[in-house]
């Protein structure tokens, strides 16, 4: 049998009803949960916070007044 031909021959009824069992239907999948912020945006914000902390002068503790 040639490779291009199907292994089975299609048979259609001459009379009566033709029934199809494999009906195509939509298949729903689970929704994907996406992060609100990307990983690169979180890293950038972390670097910006660290830069602000480094630029801020250290707070000196004020001596208590009697």
Outline the secondary-structure elements.
Blueprint: H1 39-55
Strand count: 0
Low-confidence spans: none
- Spatial gap, N to C terminus: 106 Å
- Please state the structural category: mainly alpha
Radius of gyration: 36 Å
- The H/E string reads H
Broad shape: rod-shaped
Proportion of residues in extended strands: under 5%
Question: Quick gist of this model?
Answer:
By secondary structure, the protein is mostly helical. It has one helix at residues 39-55.
Name the features.
single chain; mainly alpha; 66 residues; rod-shaped
What does this 3D model show about the protein?
- The chain has 66 residues and is mostly helical.
- Helices cover 26% and strands 0% of the residues.
- The protein is built from one helix and no strands.
- The protein has one helix at residues 39-55.
- The radius of gyration is 36 Å and the shape is rod-shaped.
